[in-house]
Amino acid sequence: MEKADFGWGPNAYFTFPKYGGTGAVWKQMAEKLPQNWFKYNSKVIKVNCQSKSINFIENNNGTEETMDYDILINTAPIDKLINETKLCSPLSIEHNKVFIVGVGLELPMTEFCETFTWLYFPDPAVPFYRITFLSRYGETTPDNTKYWSVMAECARSADYPITEEEIRDQAVEGLILKSIIIREQIVSIYSTTLDYGYPIPTVERDAEIARAHAVLEPLNIYSRGRFGGWKYEASNQDHCFIQGKELADRLFLDIPEKLYKTGLPEHRG
């Protein structure tokens, strides 16, 4: 009917931090808690299920340390956790990888993009499936009176043979092809690769994830989050926050989880 519909979908309206990107939400939450609760920039190298301890290396000094736990909540990819602990055979689950390409540009912003926050591209002519205009979300450039930005997300299978540099160049050319940007306005280009981009909901997934939880939870190891729980339909940031809250309620108040289902008998979550 030639009428714009801005009320469609759960993201028709949303809030976003003016400064610091979406990470500012979680940073401010963490600052309300005792800072000795956190160890940042550390790499876990071993999970000792029987002794209930983890070995990790702090990046700032490179020394290996051990930490005991009563309950371990894992948010790393559950397939990696199973491969490390060898509590059961490897999981038959799938994921893809995502290449992120960010382009900083001089104003003015392309006129037809000014009313959009993101766009989807089901088009094999370009490497990205979605682009996002992050400079419309908040102060995400060095100076929003001079610059604007576009973030392109390019998904590929986990073993797809392409380099980050190749797909970065393809993404820039795709943005130009679709008249999103013009080359002369480009100020900077950033790229990074997420080896775990999306957990893929395959036919075998639920049974495989339940098989993992069946050996983890009796040892007081609970795997949740986007890749810890491996359920794409419940793994956005808000979902993951709720998963953490509901798991805490289950462990300390014996309130059953509602959002995340492990596939185990109901009395076990």
Mean pLDDT: 94
Radius of gyration, in angstroms, nearest whole number: 21 Å
Helix content: 10-25%
Tally of individual domains: 3
What distance separates the N and C termini? 47 Å
Protein name: Amine oxidase domain-containing protein
InterPro entries: FAD/NAD-bd_sf
Organism: Panagrolaimus davidi
Give a description of the structure.
- The chain is α+β, with helices and mostly antiparallel strands.
- The protein has helices spanning 23-31, 78-85, 164-177, 205-216, 237-253; strands spanning 42-48, 53-58, 64-68, 72-74, 94-106, 118-120, 130-132, 147-157, 186-200, 221-223.
- Strand 2 (53-58) and strand 3 form a beta hairpin.
- The termini are far apart.
- It has three domains: 39-69, no CATH class; 70-91 and 202-269, no CATH class; 95-199, Polyamine Oxidase, Chain A, domain 2 (Alpha-Beta Complex).
- The strands form three sheets. A five-stranded antiparallel beta sheet has the order 6-7-8-5-9, covered by helices on one side. It has a three-stranded antiparallel beta sheet with strand order 1-2-3.
- The chain is built from five helices and ten strands.
Strands, helices and their partners?
Blueprint: H1 23-31, E1 42-48, E2 53-58, E3 64-68, E4 72-74, H2 78-85, E5 94-106, E6 118-120, E7 130-132, E8 147-157, H3 164-177, E9 186-200, H4 205-216, E10 221-223, H5 237-253
